[in-house]
Amino acid sequence: MTMEFSNQYVDPNVPAMYNSQAHDGGEYQLVQQLMADRSNHFGVSTLHFDTHEELLWSGSGEGHITSYHGQHMQKYTSFHIHATDAIRQMASLEGRVLALTKDQLRCSVKEGRTVFDFRGENVDDMQCMLVRSPTSLLLGGHHTRLINLDLTTGKAIKQVEVSEPGCAIMRQLKNVVYVGDSSGRVTLRDDRAWDTLNVIEAHSASLSDFDVHGNMLVTCGFGSRMGNMAVDRFLMTYDLRMMRALGPVQMMYDPIFVRFIPAYSSRLVVVSPMGQYQMMEAGSQPTGEIFQIDTMGQMCTAFEVASTYQSMCFADAGGFLHLYSSTPEATYNSYSTPTEFPQPPNHIDPIPITDEHASLASVPMFYPSTGKLFSDWPEHLGQRVYRIAKPIDSQLLQFVKMIPGSNSGYAPNIPGTRIRNLMPYKSDNKTDSSKNRSTVPDSPMGRGDDPFVVVPKRYRQVEIKYSKLGVEDFDFRHYNKTNFAGLETHIPNAYCNSMLQALYFVEPLRCYLLSHTCDKEFCLSCELGMLFHMLDLQKGQTCQASNFLRAFRTIPEASALGLVLGDAEEIQGKVNFPRLIQSWNRFILQQVHAETQDKEEEAGDDGELNNTRGSTSSDTLNINIGDTPKNESEDSIISKLFGMEVKNTFRCRCGVETLRETMSTIVSLTYYDSSGEGNLKPTTFSQVLQNSMSSEQTTQAWCNKCQKYQPHVQSKCLKAMPDIMAINCHLDNDSDLQFWQYQEQVVKESIVPEEKVEAFPSKPCRFGNGCTRKGCHFFHERDKDKSSADMDMNLLSTEDPARPSWLPFGVMVKTTEEGDIQMQDIMDEEEIPIVAEEGTVYYRLHGSVAHIKEAKSGGHLVSHVNVREPYHQRKERVTCTQWYLFNDFSITPIEKYGAVHFDLDWKVPCVIYFVKVNLSEKYDLTVQNPMDSKVLFVEENLVTPRRKRVTFTPLADDEVPKDGDLVGLDAEFVTLNQEEAELRSDGTRSTIKPSQMSVARISCIRGHGALEGEAFIDDYISTQEQVVDYLTQFSGIQPGDLDATLSSKHLTTLKSTYCKLRYLIDAGVKFVGHGLKKDFRVINIVVPKGQVVDTVDLFRLPRQRMISLKFLAWYFLKTNIQSVTHDSIEDAKTALKLYKRYMEIEAQGPDSIKETLKSMYEKGRALQWKIPEGEDSPTTAVETPPSST
Predict the structure, then answer these.
(1) Are 1088 and 1068 a contacting pair, CB within 8 Å?
(2) The 176-180 sheet, strands edge to edge
(3) Antiparallel, parallel or unpaired: β 44-49 and 667-668
(4) Which residue has the higher pLDDT, 949 or 428?
(5) Which residues contact 900 (CB under 8 A, 6 or more apart)?
(6) Is beta strand 64-69 parallel, antiparallel or unpaired with respect to 55-60?
(7) Which of 456, 763, 819, 839 has its CB surrounded by the most CB atoms within 10 Å?
(8) 662, 632 in Cβ contact below 8 A?
(9) Is 1027 left (phi over 0), alpha (psi -120 to 50) or beta?
(10) Cα→Cα distances 608→337, 612, 630, 636, 910, Å
């Protein structure tokens, strides 16, 4: 396929008279005449005016189509459809074009890319097509089939049998399809049932063209003369109301094309094969002038009229197009969509770099060279304005002393605040970076804030400033003063951090997933349990969900739903985060339900649950994603917590009803219509929630009684409420946003402050009513005249943490005797009772996820969570409840009203969770550690046994490590994404995004026993993601080692090895290694500090450089390691020996370690940290792998 864009208006081979001469055509004048692209050999076979854009399409006899824009016929696109066959007809849709050949229908975007091709054994000798709707197309040809095609799927829906000789031309008027065939007949068919309504015998031999308008049908064709077929010079006219023929109209020439142009009356344009055309009134004899198109003797092969009837185009066998228009500003459509054009490049003459005398003034400016600049604006048309002084700091106002008799005052500068009357410039901020170096970056959380931005600091997105060590030296604790763990953002698809935090604080779900394990390699439930385990262990530090997101990216359903984002999508900021996180919420509940459902309990109540009437097939009912048929759902933690039983009733308009019970986990809010004027009415949140749970909607479903798809009214009735209501807000359009905003405003205006009198300051102002200071804090007599409503609005400002909100803190659900459910808002947490009455259930607000809008990017997601007593007891050692804002790794305590207040200008609610009061009392919260010693003996080798080379000795039953045992550990990594960095103008290198590492090999060494120093784990980790760098020099990993079809190593899954490490950590072993902090970080596991012995820290003086393992082994053990590449078993053994050497030195005395390390540093500096030439290797610099210590 070739696609061409061109700025050339006409073909250069066409004589000049065709490019400029306007031939007289009566009302229509020749506007443009040019040769169509690639039509000089076979001519133009068909024409089509685009029905959505100002484009004219031409199809050639050799399968090529070209589009021309506007009255100048600027060539827009040109591409090939078929190698040899002619284009027989074209049609246009919004953004797409359809081209029909004899055995193929191609749908392409208007730039040329193919959307789909429709072929088949029934697609042969096709002649015509008819667009019935944006999703339906009718195809016909010289055979006995009419094919109804679905344009959304590109597949045939239905075939209709027609009589011989088939179909050649199709037109549609209202609910009737007019089908013309090659025998001269026009058949009228109903467009729904396809029944034949009437048959008109128009011409004796064949049909050339026909058109319908209003109540008239006009045809032209061929008749028999002396046994031969010849052009019939009579136009046949029929009255469609009476279904009878009117008098034939005789023409002065042979008619071949006929079209209605009903701009003012029922006029016709009749065209001959030799390029003659005449305009006439339908049903009357022609009296107008005959006009000749300059076809240079070629036959006219195609003719088309625009939908506005302001333009018409002729095409001839020589390949020329002749565009006639009634006005110079003619358009093809009444309301055309703007056509997208490529941006033309700006050509700037280069300046030779060697030309020392080149004038910089010769570089063209980016504004037009002609005309005046904006700086030339006349002075009398402008007004000088001066920079507005910044507001005076509130602390400064406390020390202001007023000058008697004036409005001026003075006060000393307060240390730590900006000096008044001095306006800093950007150049003043350039200071020596070496003087004031801090690990806290300049971020929106308190640095460089724009005073006019309405988003509070704690809600803004924090950007990690990377150093050469990645995020190792980033101070996460600056943004989190609590003991709860945040989640890092530098890994792909970290947008779901907010939802992970909301799920973590659901106590029954957390306890269940902590006890869950299975044999599936990529199980999101297992990964969630391991992530929750890390969040439990961390005390104020951050975690990363890299293993969970790694498994998440491998789920095919997640990719199909568009939940897996690419790097480009996140960088460009075009992601619709509210819709994305709501789809993620629905997906994760469905996925965890499928992974944790109880397979042992078989559904034995199918007959009772499948209570249906009628014979409607359940497969044809449109059930929302997230709804599972009740008889197919098995018990799981998700169905117990989030599942609500819904009885769906589908009622066809024929009266047949079908009942279907489903288990739904998500409530999608449906708001009342607010589009019309006056439709906005005060409504409670509970009313909207109740309406969303039991609303009626219309859906398409199959009805066995009607034997076709029919609209069904689907009504829902709740049978059982869930323990947790997971609500998707679905604020996707302006109407819904306006509804929520209106309800917030209603609540705001309805609340009156209790202490209205105390709102007035008690201390009088010294200037009285003559005070002109804006925002004066003292009392004035004129303040008494202010209306109470104005005072209310001032008190209920957006900065007030106690501002009321439409979203309640609780919901009361009451079941009536008739089985109906009634809901009511509870606006204060304190008002939610602990013990509920019979038939009444109370829900409290657990948390919400909100989208924070940002002008420079697509924004980000945060979550508000009401953290209950058990979490505070584990983390803070206190008994309380508190609302927190989780902004990735920034965690801030907030007032409870901040969790329910949504200023839709910058914070939009996405997901809301309500949980039943005393939810934890219904569930067993006992956590059983799923890791036992059996995981150490599980052999999950992905390599064929005959090719596997074993490099370790498995543990015996009596060798299982116990609390306090030493285990040497080392890991090797590969790179999945390269580091992204930039070189600044001052020569420094800045990291934009660190490299993404993945663990490739993990080795564990025995630290005691008869086999001390022998490896009992040496696992190579298989990965399904693309590796960009194996880092062979530093990891020893060769291409093919991680491929199950090529590897000879002990290749296994990350989950299998992770479980082994997790058991060792839970058993209390001590890990000995070199640079373990990074190893555990990439493995994505948390190890208590008391179980880590890192030789990097042991052999290091304070504020001195870290020493490589290679140098330490040479200095203390007199061995040379890592001579060619790194080996994790060798490195782990060396770390164990160094630790034991350290213990020997420490036993010599209290100062022996310090003196030994001083000697080592002196030796290292003398050798410039190079190992001298030894027996095994020449002098080499001590190498450090990328991004490691």
Answers:
(1) no
(2) 169-173, 176-180, 185-190, 196-201
(3) unpaired
(4) 949
(5) 805, 807, 808, 809, 845, 848
(6) antiparallel
(7) 456
(8) no
(9) beta
(10) 55, 10, 10, 20, 37
Q: Is the CB of residue 548 less than 8 Å from the CB of residue 527? A: yes
Query: DSSP for 15-27?
Result: -HHHHH---EETT
Q: Six-digit token pair at 537?
A: 């262990």
Across the range 1020-1035, mean pLDDT stands at 85
Distances in Å between the alpha carbon of 620 and those of 142, 623, 630, 633, 652?
35, 9, 16, 19, 13
User: Tokens 């003086």 correspond to what residue?
Assistant: 1101
Helix-, strand-, coil-residue percentages of the chain, each rounded to 5: 20, 30, 50
Closest CA to 44 of 366, 443, 442, 315: 315
How far is the C-alpha of 108 from the C-alpha of 1, rounded, in Å?
11
Name, in order, each residue with C-beta under 8 angstroms of 968's C-beta and a sequence gap of 6 or more.
Answer: 1003, 1004, 1005, 1006, 1007, 1071, 1072, 1073, 1132, 1133, 1135, 1136
Which of 241-245, 453-457, 695-699 is most confident? Answer: 241-245
1072 Cβ partners below 8 Å, 6+ apart?
Answer: 966, 967, 968, 969, 1007, 1093, 1095, 1132, 1135, 1136, 1139
Provide the annotated binding site.
970, 972, 1079, 1131
Please state the three-class secondary structure of 679-713 as a single string: CCCCCCHHHHHHHHHCCEEEEEEEECCCCEEEEEE
What is the average pLDDT across 97-123? 91
Is residue 608 very low, low, confident or very high in pLDDT (cuts 50, 70, 90)? very low
Q: CA dist 1189 to 80, 932, 998, 1078, 1184, Å? A: 58, 33, 17, 8, 7
Cβ neighbour number for residue 36 with a 10 Å cutoff: 28
The residue written with tokens 């040019």 in the block is 34
Structure tokens at 418: 């900006």
Mean pLDDT of 267-290: 89
> Pairing between strand 1051-1052 and 1015-1021?
parallel
Residue 930's SS3 state is coil
Sign of CA dihedral 891, 895, 900, 901: negative
988 or 792: which carries more pLDDT confidence? 988
- Bind-site residues for a divalent metal cation: 970, 972, 1079, 1131
Q: Does the pLDDT of residue 1059 top 60, yes or no?
A: yes
Contact between 545 and 491 (Cβ < 8 Å):
yes
Average pLDDT on 830-836 reads 78
Provide the pLDDT for residue 862: 94
- Mention every residue, 6+ apart, whose C-beta is less than 8 A from residue 431: none
Tell me whether residue 1144 is exposed, middle or buried, using C-beta atoms within 10 angstroms of its C-beta: 0 to 12, 13 to 18, 19 or more. exposed
Side-chain half-sphere CA neighbours of 800 within 13 A: 12
Tokens describing residue 213: 């308008």
Bridging pattern class, strands 486-487 and 542-543? parallel
Query: What is the phi-psi region of residue 214: left when phi exceeds 0, alpha when psi lies from -120 to 50, beta otherwise?
Result: left
pLDDT of residue 1091: 93
Question: Helix 1109-1116 to helix 1128-1146 angle, to the nearest 10 degrees?
Answer: 50
Determine how β-strand 267-271 pairs with β-strand 28-35. unpaired
Per-residue pLDDT tens digits for 138-157: 999 988 889 999 998 889 98
Helix (H) or strand (E) segment spanning residue 788: helix 788-795
Integer Cα distance of 378 and 365 in angstroms: 22
For position 1095, what pLDDT does the model report? 93
Mean pLDDT of the chain: 81
Cβ neighbours for 1032, distance < 8 A, ≥ 6 positions apart: 1038, 1125
pLDDT in tens, 681-714: 889 999 999 888 887 778 878 888 887 778 888 8
C-beta separation of 56 from 308 below 8 A? no
CA dist 1048 and 1127 (Å) reads: 16
Q: Output the six-digit token pair for 566.
A: 């690419």
